[in-house]
């Protein structure tokens, strides 16, 4: 920890995102006191300690406006089935088999980040073969569907004659029998406590166990240069976990959260709303849903997925959504509503427009806001809503996106160029565990729009500059949480959150931005992470 009353930080390059170039900045307590030339600051603060990072580059701390620390804390307690961990179906099944052999009475085998495109499709019968009577459920990387074996389906009360819950569906084989796929609410209602619906036979992890997951997540995310996040679907149990992590010193990330709409009535009774909390942990707004996922191919589209008659799913009915938004808006609280497909975004804009004249001055959010067109962009600008699109999806999914949506639509997806050109506030977001959490991967993705694995160009007309991408992951994300006056810049009065990088991501070759290494991460002027030597 840096404990001097005033410390001057400097490096070869400082991207303070201020009006004038900055060589150094002075920090007292948790805030930037002054910026300017190094000699100037030395003279102004003669007793200050100088911390010179030499040939490094300093940037404001990265801020992920839509990520899931509660979900990640849980996932990190279970099997990692990402393509990076299991590259083939045989590998995945081998890992599941080994875990099933270790399972005790009443235990479930759970895994996350399974990618059916990169690793290959996994079926109910394959899971039956390796796990027997041990219940298994694995969630897709998009987190909007998963695959269960027969023992898990039976334990959940799902059978061939079951009707899916509202906003959910079951996968079925050619004979109409359940094939193990649980889609949207059919999965979320039993797997995510934030949905707040019904009971699940799956033993919930204890708070002590989940705290271990929080520690692991925070360490990884600080190592990527993250200093602030917004947990985009928080339940009361998640909030209790985060409050405990704050008390124990394990939550060194500045953390905002969107409270799941199902829990809003209780928060309302307690008088808790947007802005409740402090600089380290606070409520940003309320989370709602319109449709499903991009990577999971369940979003609501005006035209069907390529080569199909499938238009996706609307998870929340329009009347229910309108009631939710009207109630939250009337209370003076911000909404962040998940809407991926163009049809879903239009539904949401209709609702936002219906409350826009009520004088609250609120800036609501559209989470993901993936597929837009000129009409949508004009309506968004008129409402002054904030877009929170995926930064890293072109890099992660590559050419698969075009196979699902076609070239014309991918040219309108994750439309960072269009948002910037239309003057729409846009935030940086990974949606981890659904996409890569590393902001520098997100920056490269926004700048190049190329898949990291296949090199495919995905909607090249949406490319932006590296400087614009950095602003999105700092200034834009701060605005999405109502923090634009204290985060996102290294300027007097702003919180002294920053990352020290081994090179300048704004001048390197665009296709190497993700190779930039984080050397140190600081929150409030104190070092919270240093790269292993």
Automatic annotation (TrEMBL):
InterPro entries: Amidohydro_3 (IPR013108), Metal-dep_hydrolase_composite (IPR011059), Metal_Hydrolase (IPR032466), YtcJ-like (IPR033932). It holds the Pfam family Amidohydro_3. One of its GO terms (molecular function) is hydrolase activity, acting on carbon-nitrogen (but not peptide) bonds. Residues 50-528 form the Amidohydrolase domain. SUPFAM superfamilies: Composite domain of metallo-dependent hydrolases, Metallo-dependent hydrolases. It comes from the Bacteria. This is Amidohydrolase. It comes from Prauserella cavernicola. The lineage of its organism: Bacteria, Bacillati, Actinomycetota, Actinomycetes, Pseudonocardiales.
């Amino acid at each position: 920890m840096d404990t001097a009353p005033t410390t001057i930080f400097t490096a070869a390059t400082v991207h303070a995102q201020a009006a004038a170039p900055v060589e150094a900045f002075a920090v007292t307590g948790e805030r930037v006191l002054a910026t300017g030339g190094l000699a100037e600051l030395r003279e102004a603060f003669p007793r200050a300690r100088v911390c010179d990072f030499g040939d490094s580059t300093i940037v404001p701390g990265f801020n992920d406006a839509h990520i899931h620390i509660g979900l990640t804390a849980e996932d990190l307690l279970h099997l990692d089935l990402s393509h990076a961990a299991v590259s083939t179906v045989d590998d995945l099944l081998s890992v599941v088999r080994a875990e099933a052999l270790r399972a005790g009475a009443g235990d479930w085998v759970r895994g996350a980040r399974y990618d059916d495109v990169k690793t290959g499709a996994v079926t109910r019968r394959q899971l039956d073969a390796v796990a027997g009577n041990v219940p298994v459920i694995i969630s897709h990387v998009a987190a909007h569907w998963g695959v269960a074996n027969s023992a898990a389906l039976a334990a959940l009360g799902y059978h061939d004659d079951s009707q899916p819950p509202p906003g959910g569906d079951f996968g079925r084989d050619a004979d109409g029998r359940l094939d193990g796929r649980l889609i949207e609410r059919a999965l979320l209602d039993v797997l995510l406590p934030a949905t707040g619906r019904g009971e699940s036979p799956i033993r919930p992890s204890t708070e002590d166990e989940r705290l271990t997951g929080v520690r692991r997540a925070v360490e990884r995310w600080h190592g990527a240069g993250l200093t602030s996040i917004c947990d985009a679907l928080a339940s009361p149990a998640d909030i209790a976990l985060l409050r405990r992590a704050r008390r124990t010193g394990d939550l060194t990330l500045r953390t905002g959260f969107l409270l799941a709409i199902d829990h809003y009535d209780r928060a309302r009774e307690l008088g808790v709303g947007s802005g409740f909390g402090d600089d380290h942990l606070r409520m940003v707004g309320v989370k709602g849903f319109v449709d499903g996922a991009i990577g999971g191919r369940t979003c609501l589209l005006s035209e069907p997925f390529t080569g199909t008659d499938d238009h996706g799913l609307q998870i929340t009915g329009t009347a229910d959504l309108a009631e939710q938004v009207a109630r939250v808006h009337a209370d003076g609280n911000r909404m962040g509503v998940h809407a991926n497909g163009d049809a879903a975004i239009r539904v949401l804009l209709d609702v936002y427009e219906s409350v826009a004249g009520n004088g609250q001055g609120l800036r609501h959010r559209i989470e993901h806001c993936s597929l837009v067109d000129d009409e949508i962009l004009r309506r968004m600008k008129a409402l002054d809503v904030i877009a929170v699109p995926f930064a890293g999806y072109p890099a992660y999914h590559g050419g698969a996106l075009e196979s699902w949506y076609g070239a014309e639509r991918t040219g309108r997806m994750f439309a960072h160029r269009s948002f910037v050109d239309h003057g729409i506030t846009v935030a940086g977001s990974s949606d981890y565990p659904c996409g890569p959490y590393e902001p520098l991967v997100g920056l490269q993705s926004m700048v190049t729009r190329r898949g990291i694995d296949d090199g495919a160009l995905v909607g090249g007309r949406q490319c932006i500059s590296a400087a614009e991408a950095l602003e999105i992951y700092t200034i834009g994300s701060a605005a999405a949480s109502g923090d634009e006056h204290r985060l996102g810049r290294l300027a007097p009065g702003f919180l002294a959150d920053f990352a020290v990088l081994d090179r300048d991501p704004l001048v390197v070759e665009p296709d190497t931005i993700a190779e930039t290494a984080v050397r140190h991460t600081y929150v409030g002027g104190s070092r919270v992470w240093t790269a292993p030597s």
